[in-house]
Write a structure and sequence with these properties.
By secondary structure, this protein is of the alpha/beta class. Helix content is 49%, strand content 8%. It has 25 helices and 10 strands. Strands 2, 3, 4, 5 and 10 form a 5-stranded mixed beta sheet that branches. Strands 1-6-9 form a 3-stranded mixed beta sheet. A hairpin with a 4-residue loop joins strand 4 and strand 5.
Length: 588
């Protein structure tokens, strides 16, 4: 690039786009070329030249020096780069110039150019709340009543990438160190999205994405598997459920897995990651998916079998990565669908035929299962032992020793380790839990905070063997140990927001099991009561509820919004007494 100044803006964008498309990733070439796209001259660049350049940088893995340079939500101004510092790094300045122009003149950008620029930011791990909020307002309007540009001209791939980009932006919050947000995990993602874009605006955007997908002339039939997977993953990552959209997705996928012509074969080819993300999305949102796993099972078996029609860990590894197999197994349990041919295959993918840790790591080329994966597998095995014992499946005898990332070959535990055990939990007691606990004490409810259930306790009380060592893996927010009554204090991270909810009938509460099955009558304290029809318990919370009830616990739930609406101590005490009605300790 010795003659870079002789290149016109169009030449820069086209050249870098071509290099990236051909997978030529020489970083110095990209840095030198993109230096032409500066804040000083960015107004002379056309939108396609801007989006092509930034897309090429993101695809080539050439990222800004500081990924948090534009993060006005989570990073204080004192910790962000100044304009002077931005201009000293050509890649950072290029991203700054392109996003500045998208905010300044969005009407000049075509749908593909908008999609490519937002995708590039998220792909590169660069958070930019201002541009994502600005684009959302431009596309679907603001609170002031402006209807926005609309999504009609976005392709199916464009809509999938658009949704993915917004969800990935929020997910990147978990990687920001010393960020201005106290939440962690799922709740941190939700809160970041709300703070970046605004809760009403992000809901409006995703409502329009769902409506565009199911209301267009061809509906979902033109969506490639990756487009469907990306869109569903985005909804689930942000805790947003559009029932009609997910219902249409379930129907579409099941129809594709029974191709009727050669033209439909390509659209029915799902990659393992696409399957994993798809079923994880349904499970995470606790969305009904009747028949989905039943239709996916024959396809997965076909993709995992060898030339002789058999499968083992070697043939499975050509299709599934272990994390993907784990996601599918967990999703099956949440959805209460246990295909008898699929579950053994997933365990073979995870542990191999001989439960040899070194062998299966070598086959998959990984370093073991993540810590949260171990937690998920405890839940999976526990659910199968209680709900489908006829499958006769079990975890390796030494699990989890040697199976977790960073663990070496299984080793003998010390006496101290055997007695103290290992914890798979990261327990924190929220202020809301403490407030509820103090009120429960006043009404005479004896309890402990954060009661932990261990693997050895489960084995002694229910003959369910998960591990030879003592591992903490299941907890209850507030627990009465004598009567096995538990109270789960559920904050925003336990719910999904329903975009196309049904209107409450005369203000009555609808009762649902966590699986979403509607009940009639009072029944036991296993049902879920929702006083807000726009919120639904999510899949992880539903699964935990189900497992605790299987263990004999009476679990009642306290949704955060109901507690916040209580005005004084008298109302709080009355609420807690009502909450305990129907349990074995009613009247205490």
């Amino acid at each position: 690039m010795k003659r870079k100044h002789q290149f016109a803006p169009q030449d820069i964008g086209t050249t870098l786009w071509s290099f990236a498309s051909m997978e030529y990733f020489e970083e110095d070439v990209y840095r030198s070329a993109c230096s032409r796209l500066s804040l000083r001259y960015c107004r002379s660049f056309k939108p396609q030249e801007l989006s092509n350049t930034v897309w090429a940088l993101a695809t080539a893995g050439v990222f800004p020096k500081d990924l948090n340079v534009f993060d006005t939500t989570l990073v204080s101004s004192s910790k962000r780069m100044t304009i002077s510092e931005i201009t000293k790094d050509s890649v950072t300045e290029c991203f700054a110039a392109a996003t500045t122009e998208l905010i300044r003149r969005p009407v000049e950008f075509k749908e593909q150019e908008i999609k490519d620029l937002l995708w590039s930011l998220s792909k590169a791990g660069v958070r930019h709340p201002a541009v994502f909020k600005s684009v959302a307002k431009h596309l679907v309007g603001s609170d002031s009543g402006h209807t926005g540009r609309g999504l009609d001209n976005f392709s199916s791939q464009g809509l999938g990438n658009l949704a993915w980009s917004y969800a990935k932006q929020a997910q990147l919050a978990t990687e920001v160190s010393d960020g201005m947000i106290e939440s962690t995990g799922r709740l941190a993602v939700y809160e970041t999205s709300w703070r970046d874009v605004g809760e009403p605006l992000i809901k409006r955007l995703f409502s329009k994405i769902a409506e565009r997908a199911i209301d267009s002339n061809c509906g979902l039939s033109t969506y490639k598997p990756q487009d469907i997977s990306n869109t569903c993953w985005a909804f689930a990552s942000l805790g947003i459920l559009h029932r009609s959209f997910f219902g249409a997705v379930s129907t579409e996928v099941q129809e594709r897995l029974q191709p009727k012509s050669k033209d439909s074969v390509e659209l029915s080819k799902f990659k393992a990651q696409e399957i994993a993300n798809l079923v994880w999305s349904f499970a995470t949102l606790n969305s009904s998916a009747d028949g989905l796993m039943e239709h996916l099972t024959p396809y997965i078996l076909t993709m995992c079998r060898d030339a002789k029609g058999n499968y083992d860990e070697h043939s499975i590894a050509k299709f599934f990565k272990r994390q993907e197999a784990l996601s599918v197994a967990w999703s099956c349990v949440v959805l209460e669908q246990y295909p008898p041919q699929l579950m053994p295959l997933l365990y073979t993918a995870l542990f191999g035929s001989n439960n040899d840790t070194d062998s299966i790591k070598s086959i998959h080329g990984d370093n073991g299962l993540p810590k949260q994966g171990v937690m998920a597998l405890f839940y999976v095995q526990m659910a199968m032992d209680m709900e489908v014992p006829q499958l006769g499946m079990s975890l390796p005898l030494n699990f989890p020793d040697g199976w977790v990332v960073g663990d070496h070959a299984p080793k003998a535990l010390s006496t101290e380790e055997k007695e103290g055990g290992r914890s798979m939990l990261e327990l924190t007691t929220s202020r809301l839990q403490q407030d509820v606990s103090r009120t429960l004490e006043r009404v005479g409810f004896s309890h402990v905070l954060e009661h932990v259930i261990t693997t050895d306790e489960l084995e002694s009380s229910h003959n369910i063997r998960l591990s030879p060592e003592k591992v903490e893996f299941l907890s209850i927010d507030i627990a009465n140990l004598n009567d096995l009554v538990g109270i789960e204090v559920d904050g925003p991270g336990h719910f999904v927001n329903v975009l196309d909810c049904a209107t409450d009938n005369d203000g009555e509460k609808e009762r649902y099991f966590p699986s979403g099955k509607k009940l009639s009558g009072k029944g036991a304290k296993m049902e879920w009561q929702l006083s807000n029809s726009r919120r639904l318990v999510n899949g992880p919370t539903a699964l935990k509820h189900r497992l605790l009830c299987q263990l004999g616990w009476q679990i009642v739930h306290l949704p955060f919004w109901e507690w916040r609406n209580l005005s004084d101590q008298e109302n709080e005490e009355s609420y807690c007494r009502e909450l305990l009605e129907g349990t074995t300790i009613e009247g205490q």
